[in-house]
Model the fold of this input.
Amino acid sequence: MKLNRRDLLKAAAASGALGVAWPLAAGLSPAQAREAAEALGADYDPAPFTLGVASGDPQPSSVVLWTRLAPEPLAAEQDLPDVVEVGWVVAEDAGLRTVVARGTAPASATLGHSVHVPVGGLSSGRHYFYAFTALGRTSRVGRTKTAPAGAVGAVRFAAANCQAFHDGFYAAHRGIARENVDFVVHLGDYIYEHGQVGGVPESHVRDHEGGATFTLADYRKRHALYKGDASLREAHAAHPWFLTWDDHEVANDFSGTGGGAPFMQRKAAAFQAWFEHMPHRDSFGEAALPDPEIHRVRRWGDLLELTVLDLRSYRSAQNLADGTILGAEQKSWLKQGIDKAPDTWHVWANSIMLSQLRGSPGGSYMFTDQWDGFLAERKEVLGHVHSSGLEDLVVITGDWHSAFVDDIHTDFDDISSPVVGTEFTAHSVTSGAYSADWNRTNGPRMGQANPHLTYFEGNRYGYDVYEVTPERFSTHMRVIEDRRDPASPVSTLTTFHVDRGTVGSYEDEATKNSPAQYRRPRTNRP
Done:
């Protein structure tokens, strides 16, 4: 007898299949238990490469390749030797016949049997294909691309953020996997740390596998659960990724420099599990312990300079006169980078909103966990951007579960202060936004309260695709129809442009009448 999806979900939840022993549960046959697990999104690759493959941090001659051996992805411990030798190969073709590099790497239990292989000696600006072998099995084939060197005529890349597992399927990642992009930037909230939310399948399409995460085993299982969505694995296998993080990789609204011993242990566990599951190149070496280093500058030829920021690890508490979101060392590093920046597009990968956001005219800031909680440092950094003469700054941001477009002023309380860049805040992959009623009412209020805000749309989910040439930076807001549908189609909601050498953005004529809860009227380009 074949159960329908609703019955499978209810049976799995009632029998504990969403909890400790998921998906093996009393009351379901093995075949039905597997079907229930797959209905919840646990569609893993064949063992031991159940979590797929990925690549990251592309540079002109190198890229990092990643996999993790997890025959039982949701098990607290894997039934594997302490060290497993993993073979890897890089080739010019998908059939892996024209091999350009190969080798072996140890996958140790210390790092969850994860593998991070920095492959060098590659040619710049070209696609490669790769795969892993271990325990007599071969992984799926992944595709990556090295950064170009020298003159570049165009780059196309995507950004994703906020992918709560229980709030929807990853149709947005399915879309990213199929995009013709050079790389992907993930802006944080890759996982969520809280426990089960319930309401499956009426309110949520699926749920977390257990309670809140505190230990290394907890965070490993949570990452493995999220990798259980086939579309996420597909997006990782299709393109190289750059990565930053926000709070939910550890705990809601956390400060990396605060908390007692129990929280510091939790943070260390979360950071290690994050590294074990990401194609991350760390300056501290392969082990990346105790904490990975996130912030870095990477260049895509002479066209684009990407600055990846870490806005969690070094921050102080919010709302302090001398508070810091960057930390002294990262702030000094950022300012030095601004001073010596080349003449190119400058893109900051920023996990939380840089622009000011008041809820009503003259009202309080909506969230001080973002840059609004660190006013003096924001003014200092943006003032330095202006005084240095840096031009063509675009900030790409996640976190808000809604789309915003903002002019970046050196002083947001003074609308006559210089505009030094544009911020694009992207829709979330799945994480729940405010209701349509809230957006309809509060979109205009936010517009009135924030004269630098040019656009707000909060009713949709998806990702952004950025198309960059020497003359123009274009942001295409790509949205899905239904986050409850894993194969939901993708469309472009609207497109904004920034012209080289000109501050401010403008909406494309072809999409300026698309649905939104707020637009600031502009008769001409800025």
In short: The chain is about 20% helix and 25% strand.
